[in-house]
Every structure is written in C-alpha cells, then in structure tokens.
Amino acid sequence: MPALTHEQQTQLMAAAKASIRHAYMPYSNYSVGAAVLTSDGQIFSGINIENAAYPAGTCAERVALGNAISQGHTQFNAIAVFSPKGEISPCGICRQFISEFGPDIQILFHWQGQLQQVAIKELLPFSFSKTQLNA
Ligand code: THU
Hints:
Blueprint: H1 6-19, E1 33-38, E2 43-47, H2 60-69, E3 76-82, H3 92-99, E4 106-111, E5 114-119, H4 120-123, H5 130-133
Parallel strand pairs: 3-4
Antiparallel strand pairs: 1-2, 1-3, 4-5
Bound molecules: tetrahydrodeoxyuridine (THU).
Tetrahydrodeoxyuridine (THU) is lined by residues 25, 28, 30, 32, 48, 50, 57, 59-61, 81, 90-91, 94.
C-alpha cells in the first residue's frame, strides 16, 4: 500500500476532527472522532456513541468503518483517530475490527507529540483472522 501523501494525512485527520461535534459521550465526556479513507478515495467519518449500559457503547473507529461498510466499501487505505482530550490510539477491540479488512491499513494518530502513521499489522501483530478460521 502506498504511503499517504502529506495532503491525504491532513485531510483525513481534519475529517476525524470535524466529526467530533457529533460525538455522543454523556458518561465519559471523552469525545473521539475517526475518519476512514477508502481505496477509491472516499472519506467516511464516525464518532464514539456511548450508552447507559456502558459496554454497549461503541468507539469512533468502528462507527466510521461501519458507516463506510454500510455504504458498500470494504477496501480501506487508512483510518485517522483523534480526541480533543489528548493523544489517542485505537483500543484493542478496534485494532481487531480494523485488522479484518487487511494488514496494511494505515492508522493515523497523534502520539508522543507527533503524527504517527503505523500499519494495523504493527499495532496488532499475530492477530486472529479468517486465515485461522479456514485452517
Ligand atoms: N474510544 C474511542 O472512541 N476509540 C478508542 O480507540 C478508545 C476509546 C471511546 C470509547 C468511549 O466512548 C470513550 O472513548 C472513553 O473510553
């Protein structure tokens, strides 16, 4: 997978930030936005959606992917995640969810004061996948 251009990185992170205004987080007050870039260049965003039954809440990354998938997309180049509360990288469940769609998906996030771009296979090595199911 080709590395994202600086412009693509900026655009994707901007979409993640822009989505935050719709975050539904009455319990944690911790808003998160995510944006996914499809292989044909479209961007779909998502936000965290919490629930009074806490475990029923959903992360922004999975909402963004679900938004894209529900509109027919399953090929992804990258996903950006952002929180105005501070540096964030995808949680373990989201790493597994993203891995489903390919090991080379690039994850963009702020960490240690820098914009990081790391392939999902580096964030979740030895992941469980359809390879194991089909063995
Ligand atoms: N959250 C995300 O949306 N993405 C992550 O990768 C980590 C956590 C959300 C879930 C919950 O609504 C809030 O952040 C606090 O955990």
